[in-house]
Amino acid sequence: MYKRLCMLVPILILLTPAGLALDVFYFKTVDLTLIPSAVKNGAVCLDGSPPAYHIDRGVGEGAHKWLVHIEGGGWCDTTENCLNRTKNIYGLGSSKIMQAKNFTGLLGDNQQFNPDFYNWNRVFVRYCDGASFTGNSYDPVNKLHYKGAKVFSAIVKDLLGKGMRNATNALLTGCSAGGLSAILNCDKFRSFLPRHTNVKCSSDAGYFLHVKDVFGEYNFANFYDRIVKLHGSTKNLPRACTSTMRPRSLCFYPQYVVPHVETPLFLINSAYDSYQIGYILAPSINNLPQSWERCKNDTTTCSQDQIDILKGFRSEFVSALPKLGNGSFRGMFVSTCVIHCQSQLEPNWVSDPGFRLENKTMAEALGSWTNGRSSVQIVDDNDVPKICLTPL
Question: Which residue in 273, 274, 351, 352 is the catalytic one?
């Protein structure tokens, strides 16, 4: 049984630089579902524990519609980092320590705040492999299971057995590393479902850019390369990309994969994604100047030279997006908010006017595109990073 919280819950949302503001939203707490039968097939988390997800069943017209959302949580590129994930309090490497999940935003069941998906079967897939569900390797010395690809398949198959094989509509989504996973596994997800099912994918803050950092190096690309090699991910990356791209680890980048994705895909992202500014453009390595540490944590402190570099990053990001054209096949909602991951945050998703583009909320944009009411290709033409949360 699900523990339902029909109450208003105050949360503190950190603003930059405006301090703290109070917001209010509804959520529903959904218990964890384990798949112990997957263990015998090697579909396990880093520590060998079974894969897991949370599911809130659809009702009425949504009973045969499915939204499957993949959790984010970064990646691990070394044995030490992956071992640390197995002890992570959020369960990013082990289902043994996973807890119930609060559903809100695009996972919420309140029609007012989630008008298109509130009555769908909504699933939150727990991320416990450290390579966006692409790994296929094993470290017997440290007993680390890099089995993300098998975990993804096991979860989808379990959902098929719980009714998803009869779906009329299925949307695969994800945030951050989960958003990347939704891109990398989009066609694979499509292949599991019947032809009559209307299958689409959406990535929130998963469009990570292959670009030089402020040191003039590709340090983040080296990080991705280590992930792919450690997890044995190459064989599970889209072959249309790996057959031509060198090094093949570049196929961990959406800009090189999306041209080969055959399933309709919708991108939610910021051209000033705060994670990408902090870890791709200006990583805290090689004695990053304090002026950059301040700038990336609070863009109002950036010098004009730094703003120009940020604008250059935005320009490269926009250039790396899919070409505008068939909006029903490639949709997008690209802002210039300094933020990372938005669809699970109710203010960003539906209520705060600061996050609207062309007077559309994120919920309206993805809902209209998913349900075929309209094609949506919106890229904010503002070229300056901005704080979008409206102060109370």
Answer: 273
